């Protein structure tokens, strides 16, 4: 059994559950749920509004959490600080904020000068890091350039450097692919882009829960992620942006809590971060995120990384013995990331996932919101196994047994 499985109350109700869908959302440790419950029962109030103690406490909770997030992603070194951390609803919302609030203005400024701007993404992006740029392209005519990936599943740096030019306004790239589990060389990508003065947005949704993220060291300009991919709740995400970009960015959503002065005809915005957080904060979710960070950081990073790497290696080794399994990346290219996607020749992914579900095994089947990547790999769908701290070698053994059953049931030769 995993050292950490007992931290997740769901297993007391579903002891047979083998949960392999952490890339969709991680299960929540009881301490996280308890902290949210406590806040909602005993401390709930609107933050940044009231002068009474309950509200002041909620404000303190939000601002302390902001500092904790800054620390967690290494944004507190040097000139950076917690004011560069924006609470959003999700990774998706954070990317839309950057697309509509910052990049659109840059494009318009270039267009005025009669140049066609371009935004570069990779072939392996989640739709959350593709559609906002497609919409922008339809709205403004910005050219969407697609950087290819190599056989090892990471961005082809040579090809990327050829795509970068003086009209590039942003590189938007995933840190860890939600389909392939590959880790992109973000520091090198930033170096390449910065040589041409192009900022880089990193979609860290699949990274923060697994690898150490240090935005200052990576030198990225924007970093976005969601709490629910790191054992926290849904409904809360983070946009880290360097101060210089925050100063140029307009809020995507406007309303209460973001102005110094308003009349019927005009308004004056507060400085970042509050100008990007219109409406009431999702304080309970912020408490959940903060507690998830405490939960993760209480476990030495090397310990959790080693554990998940060992599990990943075991999974890959066991999978490689199943002749009917075709991984999306060749087995020899697979590293020890916690995501493994495959197809079963001649069988629809949904059929495989349904059979596994009958054995209480939860995997994801479909295109995982990465249809263009699947199309490039000339497949429609795949099955994804993704690992979390609650998984164990025994879970993987059960998965392998079940897959063998699927093979027999569906008479795959
Ligand atoms: N990017 C990646 C790489 C993801 O895996 C996901 C979630 N599957 C997202 C973005 C979107 O995250 P959210 O749904 O929390 O906005």
Secondary structure layout:
Layout: H1 10-13, E1 18-19, H2 30-43, H3 53-72, E2 85-88, H4 91-112, E3 118-122, H5 131-140, E4 143-147, H6 157-163, E5 168-174, H7 186-195, E6 200-203, H8 215-218, E7 222-226, E8 237-241, H9 243-248, E9 259-262, E10 267-269, H10 283-297, H11 301-320, E11 325-327, E12 339-344, H12 349-358, E13 361-362, E14 364-366, H13 371-376, E15 382-386, H14 393-409
Parallel strand pairs: 1-13, 3-4, 3-5, 5-6, 6-7
Antiparallel strand pairs: 2-8, 7-8, 9-10, 11-12, 12-15, 14-15
Helix pairs in contact: 2-10, 3-10, 4-5, 11-14
This protein binds 4'-deoxy-4'-aminopyridoxal-5'-phosphate.
Across the major sheet, the strand order is 2-8-7-6-5-3-4
Bound molecules: 4'-deoxy-4'-aminopyridoxal-5'-phosphate
Q: Tell me, what's the shape?
A: globular
- Summarize the main sheet: 7 strands, mixed
Q: What sequence of helices (H) and strands (E) makes up the elements?
A: HEHHEHEHEHEHEHEEHEEHHEEHEEHEH
| CATH-level-2 architecture of the largest domain | 3-Layer(aba) Sandwich
Number of strands: 15
Question: Rg from C-alpha positions?
Answer: 22 Å
Low-confidence stretches: none
Number of helices: 14
* Domain count: 2
For the record, the CATH class of the largest domain is Alpha Beta
CATH topology of the largest domain, which one?
Aspartate Aminotransferase, domain 2
Give the structural class.
Answer: alpha/beta
Share of residues in helices: 25-40%
CATH H-level superfamily title of the largest domain: Type I PLP-dependent aspartate aminotransferase-like (Major domain)
CA(first)-CA(last) distance: 33 Å
Measured by DSSP, the beta-strand proportion falls in 15-25%
């Amino acid at each position: 059994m995993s050292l950490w499985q007992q931290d997740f109350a769901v297993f007391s109700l579903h002891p047979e559950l083998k949960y392999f869908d952490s890339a969709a959302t991680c299960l929540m440790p009881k301490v996280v749920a308890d902290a949210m419950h406590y806040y909602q029962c005993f401390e709930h109030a609107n933050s940044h509004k009231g002068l009474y103690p309950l509200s002041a406490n909620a404000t303190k909770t939000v601002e302390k959490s902001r500092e904790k997030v800054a620390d967690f992603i290494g944004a507190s070194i040097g000139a950076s600080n917690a004011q560069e951390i924006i609470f959003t609803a999700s990774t998706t919302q954070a990317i839309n904020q950057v697309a509509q609030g910052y990049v659109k203005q840059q494009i318009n400024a270039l267009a005025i000068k009669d140049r066609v701007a371009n935004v570069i993404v990779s072939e392996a992006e989640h739709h959350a890091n593709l559609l906002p740029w497609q919409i922008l392209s339809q709205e403004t005519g910005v050219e969407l350039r697609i950087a290819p990936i190599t056989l090892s599943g990471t961005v082809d740096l040579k090809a990327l450097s050829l795509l970068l030019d003086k009209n590039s306004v942003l590189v938007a790239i995933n840190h860890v692919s939600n389909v392939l589990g590959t880790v992109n060389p973000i520091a090198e990508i930033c170096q390449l882009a910065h040589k041409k003065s192009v900022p880089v947005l990193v979609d860290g949704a699949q990274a923060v829960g697994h690898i150490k993220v240090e935005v200052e060291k990576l030198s990225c300009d924007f970093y976005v992620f969601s709490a629910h991919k790191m054992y926290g709740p849904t409904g809360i995400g983070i946009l880290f942006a360097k101060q210089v970009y925050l100063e140029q960015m307009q809020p995507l959503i406007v309303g209460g809590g973001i102005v110094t002065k308003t009349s019927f005809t005009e308004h004056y915005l507060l400085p970042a971060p509050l100008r990007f957080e219109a409406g009431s904060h999702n304080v309970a979710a912020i408490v959940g995120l903060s507690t998830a960070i405490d939960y993760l950081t209480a476990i030495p990073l090397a310990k959790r990384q080693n554990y998940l790497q060992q599990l990943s290696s075991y999974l890959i080794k066991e999978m490689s013995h199943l002749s009917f399994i075709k991984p999306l990346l060749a087995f020899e290219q697979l590293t020890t990331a916690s995501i493994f996607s495959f197809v079963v020749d001649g069988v629809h992914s949904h059929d495989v996932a349904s059979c596994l579900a009958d054995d209480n095994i939860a995997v994801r089947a479909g295109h995982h919101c990465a249809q263009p990547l699947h199309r490039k790999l000339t497949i429609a769908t795949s099955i994804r196994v993704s690992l979390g701290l609650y998984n164990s070698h025994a879970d993987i053994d059960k998965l392998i047994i079940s897959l063998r059953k699927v093979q027999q049931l569906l008479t795959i030769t």
